[in-house]
# Entry
Amino acid sequence: MMLRLLGLAAAVLAATAASAQRADSGRISGGADDDLPPAQRLRIQQQLAAALGSPELRRAVAARKAAGAVPLQWPLRALHGEGFGYHGISNYVDHDPAFPGRVLDYACGARTYDNAQGYNHAGTDYFLWPFPWLTMDDGAIAAVAAAPGIIVGHNDGHPDRSCAMSDLPWNAVYLRHDDGSMTWYGHLRRGSLTTKQIGDTVEAGEYLGLVGSSGSSTAPHLHFELHDATGRVVDPRHGNCNAEPEHWSPPQAYEDPAINTLSLHTQEPEWVGCGDGSEGAMQERTYATDAIVPGTTFHALASFRDQRRGDVATFALQRPDGSEFAHWQHDLADEDLPREVYAATVWTWIHTMPVDAPHGDWHFVADFHGRRYTRAFFVGSETEVRAAAVMRERAAVQALTPAQHPGRGDL
Ligand SMILES: [Zn+2]
# Structure
């Protein structure tokens, strides 16, 4: 299955202030899909059972204190990046054993999938958004342990740029927790796994590997899967169609409308579909910039997760003195789209910076769902812009502590 990216027809919105013209296209993504073929699932289960039966792991398990239900925490962490958010959720666990096309998520919705081979999606898919391949290549987002436990297995060395369903194996880490439950972290980037070994303990939030697209996967994402002590797949989300108590602490919302990023671009970014799979072959071109030269045209971009019809986003470009240069709104209802909610969207608006625009620090501001998002940018001559870029680079290098450098094992 292809990454479901749809270019949208032009829809120029009425501007409520100067220079807010919608760009030619928006982007909608269903995120990422995946599959774990039965033979692979069986192999993993055998691998983990064998490991758990080994004297080393028996000793490691015995050394830990057994616990009641272990609460789970957010299984991802941004190692770097400037976004407010970096993910969307494409699929939950499918609770309807029938197939194909018979799906039911924990909240009695249909945010999940099955296939004709009888696979009912057994985990939660957290995909990267808005520039999934670039974000993956940047090593920006890590899968982290949802709870303390012991590493009971890992798979590595497999290609990590899949963009279609396949029989390829994934790179993954498997943990056992003190209530006997297990968590699986699948589709990781090749060579990015923690250097810790089977039998080693991990803390909650500890680095396990980078989000990638190894195995049967249409785009970079984490497939997170929970099993109880008997090996049964468990959906950690409580809802009307899942009697299981909530395992996430804090609970994760079914829909989580938010702005992931605000950014400026010298031209419309280019997304990519399914490339040839070679290193660097699939990567978006963003044309992102932090500085605008007066007299030039630029794109203001907002990416959303769980954007819903009727949720109005308000945007403004503010001059250094705080006054508004441009002001506009966006509502999914203004688009010619059939659904009430989309897991991931991107919209861009074209502006022209006047030749007499005041130089200095401007702000791209958005209000959405009760939260304010602010992104600073610089307006000035090309000389000033170059000088500002050098300053920012110096500041960024100084701000980086060793722990923030992406790398293996030390995270
Ligand atoms: Zn999945």
About this structure: The pocket of zinc ion is lined by residues 34, 91, 121, 123, 125, 223 (CB under 6 Å).
